[in-house]
Amino acid sequence: xxxxxxxxxxxxxxxxxxxxxxxxxxxxxxxxxxxxxxxxxxxxxxxxxxxxxxxxxxxxxxxxxxxxxxxxxxxxxxxxxxxxxxxxxxxxxxxxxxxxxxxxxxxxxxxxxxxxxxxxxxxxxxxxxxxxxxxxxxxxxxxxxxxxxxxxxxxxxxxxxxxxxxxxxxxxxxxxxxxxxxxxxxxxxxxxxxxxxxx
Amino acid sequence: xxxxxxxxxxxxxxxxxxxxxxxxxxxxxxxxxxxxxxxxxxxxxxxxxxxxxxxxxxxxxxxxxxxxxxxxxxxxxxxxxxxxxxxxxxxxxxxxxxxxxxxxxxxxxxxxxxxxxxxxxxxxxxxxxxxxxxxxxxxxxxxxxxxxxxxxxxxxxxxxxxxxxxxxxxxxxxxxxxxxxxxxxxxxxxxxxxxxxxxxxxxxxxxxxxxxxxxxxxxxxxxxxxxxxxxxxxxxxxxxxxxxxxxxxxxxxxxxxxxxxxxxxxxxxxxxxxxxxxxxxxxxxxxxxxxxxxxxxxxxxxxxxxxxxxxxxxxxxxxxxxxxxxxxxxxxxxxxx
Lengths: 199, 337
What we know:
The structure holds two protein chains of two kinds.
Chain A: H1 6-10, H2 20-28, H3 43-47, H4 58-66, H5 70-75, H6 78-81, H7 87-91, H8 98-111, H9 119-134, H10 139-150, H11 152-157, H12 159-167, H13 181-192
Helix pairs in contact in A: 9-10
Chain B: E1 2-6, H1 17-30, E2 32-36, H2 53-69, E3 74-77, H3 80-95, H4 97-108, E4 120-123, H5 124-132, H6 134-140, E5 149-153, H7 175-182, E6 186-187, H8 201-204, H9 206-222, E7 227-230, H10 233-241, H11 243-250, E8 258-260, H12 261-268, H13 286-290, H14 298-307, H15 331-336
Parallel strand pairs in B: 1-2, 1-3, 3-4, 5-6, 5-7, 7-8
């Protein structure tokens, strides 16, 4: 049995901390995430406009990452409720790239198929599918497919609005395809072979 | 004239056409020369980064590489999300060299490359204030918008996270207020000026979005604003098109119109509303415009747009018909795909 470090004794811990999950998420995040620097002050949750719909505040989620609670973190709805408003980011005293950490958690959850509600992951995946096919976003195709699959009732409720958008020329029924699709596909295929975590 | 590499972004071609049309009108008199990036692609919005990181950044970086090829230095983006994505990729590729290298390895598969830091990524609002200048803008105003009470809605992704320290304040930015004052509008106090419209939550978590939209509209209403003004296609779409759903959700009856700042600038510069995309809103601007003695060309716009459409929305593309012999799109291929 390995000797317990003295600081662990004081903290009444009988094992070494396992920070592998925290590091994994940090390394998978664009830029230098500074996730390890979180001091648990809670400025993030306090600044968050959609915190009321999250099952954990960002602060709690980061404590759970540190505690290695992989399953619970990936199943949390918090990253999916994040609206990318960057309020927490500009208020964080430790300059943690909080929004980007949320993106990393989403992609990990998608890769490991860990989510309670498939609607949000599906939306992202359909959006990306359209972009990979045309090189541009294709709102009409995206909305139609997403609503049909996930909320046909809402589609009926919003039909009038959708029709208004069409009438006013604000919704293109046909997708626009870029000329350099072959080039873009080559770039994306190459990019998909790589992951940022391993450097 | 100042030259800019122009990245319009997907929304400018669809739901934010009013933004595009009004920008095209005001660019010339303001001395903004826009050279669109040839064959640009989508920036990935807030979706691709949540799926797969290196492809997401490579998607953005293709645009940066194409822009850098032009030899010009400054990229102008009118869309807040596009602006942030381009600026973010440029910044993170330098901050995390491993990201920069991998993205360049991917770009090389398409014979492209991008050196982070070689472009200046700027938002239209920043260019208008800091390059063109408020004095020039004021000098061009022929029809000050006196008596129009506007709520300045800057939103999130322009003042935050602000990697290059371009903005006055991340939470209480003053740029949009200054522009609106310069064109003679009456700017009301609007505490929600840099809060969130809900972004894509209108699609994936509508209840969250309704609440954020409600906060914005009720704040504008309390300030007795006639109209909200935005710099972002997403904000315009959410507040405008989803206002009806928000009203049904809360049993409210808000009628708060929202337009792009370029549309109001266009009015002040003397352009008629029909040239600036007015009338394409879902929540009517009629009452607001009547405050400055103007009408919206609703009939003209809907009629014009209707004429371009044939048939029902689906299936995808079956209209290589006698009506549109000029259509050269590969319809069969699309249908197959």
